Amino acid sequence: MITTLLIILPLVAALLVYLAGQRLAPTVAIAATVLEFAVALYAYFTFDVAAGWNFAVNQEWIPSLGISFNIGMDGISMALVLLTTFLLPIILLSSLLSPLKDKASFYSLALIMQSALIGVFVAKDLFLFYIFWELALIPIYFICLLWGDENRRPVTFKFFIYTLFGSLLMLAAIIYLYTVTPEKSFALENIYNTDLSALEQTWVFAALFLAFGIKMPIFPLHTWQPSTYTSAPIAGTMLLSGIMLKMGIYGVIRWVLPVVPTALMNWGWLAALLSVIGIVYASIIAIRQSNYKTLIAYVSIAHVGLIAAGLFSNSVEGLQGVIAQMLAHGVNVVGILFVIEILLNRTGTLEISKLGGLRNQMPQFAVFFVVIMMASIALPSTNGFIGEFLLFVGIFNYNPYLAAVAGLTIILGAVYMLSSYQKIMLGEAKSAYNNVLDLTLIEKSILIPIVIVIFVFGLFPNLVLDLTEPAVNEILHTVNNSIPVAN
Amino acid sequence: MMEFVWLIPALPLLGFLILSLFNKYIPKSASGYIASAMLLGSFLIVLNLLFSAISGQLIEQPPVVLFHWVHAGNLNLSLSFQIDNLSVWFMSIITGVGFLIHVYSISYMHDDEGVTRYFSYLNLFIFSMLLLVMGSNYVVMFMGWEGVGLCSYLLIGFWFKNQNYNDAAKKAFIMNRIGDLGFLLGMLLIYNQFGTLEYREVFDQASKIINPNEVSTIITVITLLLFVGAMGKSAQIPLYTWLPDAMAGPTPVSALIHAATMVTAGIYMIARSNVLYSMAPCTLDVIYIIGTGTAILAALIGLTQTDIKKVLAYSTVSQLGFMFMAIGLGGYSAGVFHVTTHAFFKALLFLGAGSVIHAMGGEQDIRKMGGLMKKLPITFITFIIATLAIAGIPPLAGFFSKDAILALAFEANPIKWGLGVFAALLTTFYMFRMLYLTFFGEFRGTQHQKEHLHESPLLMTIPLMILAALTVFSGFIEVPHVLGGHNWFSHYLAAANIALPEASHLSNSTEYLLMGTALALVVSVIFITYFLYVSKKTQPASSESEMSFLDKLSYNKFYVDELYDFVIVKPLGFLSDFNSNIIEKHFIDRIVNVSGKSIQWSGKTIRYIQSGDVNTYAIFMVIGIVVILFLNLVL
Question: What pLDDT is stored for residue B56 in this prediction?
Fold first, then answer.
């Protein structure tokens, strides 16, 4: 029941927000997302780790095609639902900073998107998964198109076509899977039980990898991302990088690893290699970016590259690292984007060369900036370290040389983060920013929860790792059981 | 006793939290006292532990587990402490010297507007450094390791308005991270091989799995990777160039972090892992070469520097080289012994330099000093004690620790002894050059500076005196047999499984001869420098154009920074531009756009077929029928 509630509540709220009118819309929307987070927390505290799938609902929907409204949460779903519901109030609160036109539509769209995102994370039916996946694309498309900067039209168009292309491939793979399943149903167990030849697996893997890889994005499928992140409104970028890209990673865990294990054995190295190339490639590009938001977009590609490499490590440590890093990245990237929002709000620019010396006017802001930056470059005791360390353990066991190359991220990360921080914040005060004010109460109320989560999860990661470990074992069990024994 | 161990790092952490969270409500003058009080608390607990350690109560203590930190698959990491003779020794140095430097800072930093921030960072540093040496597994060490790196970054760039200082801070952090990648990969390989990162389990398994008579490639790679980490943190070739730049930070920070404690973390790490290193003779050779090379190179650069802190910085790099030299020769305890004596005399030198800079109103150039001995008598006397100690004059601490290393070197190979003595002579030369130029002769500063010369207040001079006393006496903990001692310190460390060097094969007369020779050479260098800089009043060149070629080479640090800039920094920037302007825009994105455009184009072209004109459709239909019929015929 809770799972259904988690999907329905934002939809109802979206309607209410739309009806509430421009003035009340933000309040209603934020209240709804806080309520949603409370529901998710309740689910977390009543979650029975030993039981596998919790809060499952299975209703027939289109029986003639074997499609059902089949949802539930295992540990992995629960973790991502927690991430989504934690971030939404923060994202909506942070959008209060910028003067939005037509607030009611904006908040309604964000809420519809939340519903779809949760749907993606809890769907136990492949067709349902696909529907939620597509549903999530529509609101973000409008958010980028209607509230983005002056380049928004061509950029959003490219983003839309690119993702739609991926979706189409996914649909093809899904339909193919359906035609070869034993019971002609999209149910998760049924899909998992399908025996595919190595060749079939390769094609399905290729299609799904492209679809999910575009979403993350993995090198070289990433060129839609920097421009979209840059021209979308901050809340849109937060939704895209904080939560939406996790759909792709989650998709691989849920619908690729257990379904095409043989293809993974044959082609996983290629995916891992591309991911690692992406880490170094994007990190190097980030070093010389002149716009801070674009810089962070490339950083996101680098971070996601590491997560993606971990996906193919076929180890508990690696996959646990994937989950830990998804959560950490979600929180930290929203944190750094909020930092960007504040910079933009105070100075009107994100050109690094025009900024400088802001620490003089904004000492408190500087502290939060440093903490989030350190979490982003994975300093131990922050959440970033847990994920990164586990990922490295997994990747190293898969291939030490790959791990060594991926490890360059800890050096390059320090280079681009510290250089840009220095240029933006340090040095003599600039007279143009003499009247800039330090953090307001509402800004602190956004940054403080982020910092708390950074340290709580950095010091007590077992709060989540113990939740997801059985689910991860289950996935790996399926993967390794379906690989034919080598002769 | 063990139940209070967590308080040792917790107190400075608490200090950090109080100072940083309530910094608005804490009077500036109080922050130093709060920070110092926290550290004093830790120090007292550590002293207690030190007594237990000395009386042999800490042998084979199980780790103290605070909580389970990370669990995933087979990986179980806990935040736990290994309290044994080695860690307690380092904790004593950290909290003891740390406390003195905190007290010194109260006076040194009292009129800085960021004093509360300063002390919060200092407390955070002590917390991280304690974590580094107290951890019972590599990941906790890594946590402290990166933590001290952060604090070092924050404190080097403490005066953040100056972008040169910020550059130095950034450089320190990034160079350390290069080392950290080595450390990380070392840890990953350890976990990959042994399935654990707890020291005890790793060492147990390593000694079980590996046949001691065989050279194990895996252990060699592990130890080399960990050593890369040590190179970064302990400023060895090729990762040493950050340390001299780190002098941008306040002088007490240089004393604490960049001389006495943090930079010795590499020695601690290797001493801690000595079981592994003893299995990897190749690695030890590499360490010896790097250590000796660094000791000599840094000393050569030190010869011509004119900034009092830069001289001390290169001296630190060079002394760290000495420590690695010891370790490369298998002398783990000799390395840690030199860490100890160096912590005292180098902290003393830096604080003394701070006192001088304080008196000179911020001036750091020794060319503009001179004759300060009369105006700063306490600083002068303590400074001369430290200088004699670093030169290795008996019975000061440096004599014993340097002699222990030289004896090891001679036993390995007389040439190695010769190299060690050469580095020691260079050290003597630049140190006495600095001493004479600063305290002897005539004052060369401005009239204004001359009028303001004064001895520092008691809060600064008392730490100097205590450190001077330690510099005088601490050498006696490791008096060698040949001088009638019992190598007490080596035995103390042996209780923490630090391998003892093999018993000396040298006869007493050989050892006397070696000591005598080294001493005679050092003393003659002292006289030569006296002759040069006091009698002949030689002055360092005031501009580069007056220098000889070799002087210029040394003065410009052999152009290593320029080399790195040319070989690494510039190409990286170029690669960044190339990737984003060429590969990204003209290659990857073009393929995407072209495929998008080609679809648009085909759509535009093909739509003409659907013109709505019935005649056209009829023609296409006829063509179609013909083709089908034709195909039917052919097939």
Answer: 84
